[in-house]
Amino acid sequence: MPMKSCDRSAAELDLMLGIKLNYLHVLFLQHLALVRRVSEPDTQLRNIAQEILSLVVEAVLFKDHLVHSGTSLTWKVVYYGLAAAGVICLSLLQNQYSLEHELAAAPKILRDLGVLVAEIEYGTLVYKEDANYALLAGATQTIKNILDNISRSRLDQRRLNVQAPDATAQDDPELGSASWNLWGTGNLQDFDTNFWLMLAEHPLTFNT
């Protein structure tokens, strides 16, 4: 149930948010430990990441109605949101959103990522003097580049389909670059600054 539909006090909403995020994060870490490669998250891990990101974005949009008595909203975004966004970005870069039921969720995923980027860029969550600014700014730039390139790739594909409607659509090779493999088996990431710096090396994050 969306937070705006809950008839609860600000403190109760914050408590409910923290409990659910902690629960989902435990599931996230369990599935993260089971994947063969971090750069190839499975469906269950992606679904958990999507749920976490959606909840974090909802908290960001609903921030004026929350108390944040335990941990700050910025901390929640860094600890929960960036981990979820990292897995989702890896999935997007590996072109894993290909099945019909997953494609249905893709627009919301892209919208949630876009909202997160906008809130950080506009300074509603963190300021330059804050300790987490460098991490959030770097992650935001990488996510933004991925979103821009995905939008550009889809637009180019639509143009090709209009020009040659009978031709079979081809996937963008950069979207599923099989040669890009930064993490091997069992090498878990903390989704910190180094993670986002390495993710920025993927061809799809080059905003040209």
Give your account of this protein's structure:
- The chain has 208 residues and is mostly helical.
- The chain has one domain.
- The chain has seven helices and no strands.
- Helix 2 crosses helix 5.
- The chain is globular, with a radius of gyration of 18 Å.
Short description:
It comes from Fusarium oxysporum (Fusarium vascular wilt). With about 210 residues, this protein is mainly α.
What secondary-structure arrangement, pairings included, does this model have?
Blueprint: H1 10-34, H2 43-61, H3 73-93, H4 100-103, H5 106-121, H6 133-163, H7 193-199
Helix pairs in contact: 1-2, 2-3, 2-5, 3-6, 5-6, 6-7
Quick tags:
208 residues, mainly alpha, 59% helix
Helical run tally = 7
Rounded mean pLDDT score: 78
Specify the structural class: mainly alpha
| Share of residues in strands | under 5%
Low-confidence segments, given as residue ranges, are: 167-171, 173-179, 184-188
Describe the largest sheet.
none
Radius of gyration of CA atoms, rounded to a whole number:
18 Å
Kindly state the number of beta strands: 0
Task: Give, in order, the helices and strands.
Answer: HHHHHHH
Q: How many angstroms does the end-to-end distance come to? A: 40 Å
| Portion in helices | 55-70%
Shape: globular
- How many structural domains? 1
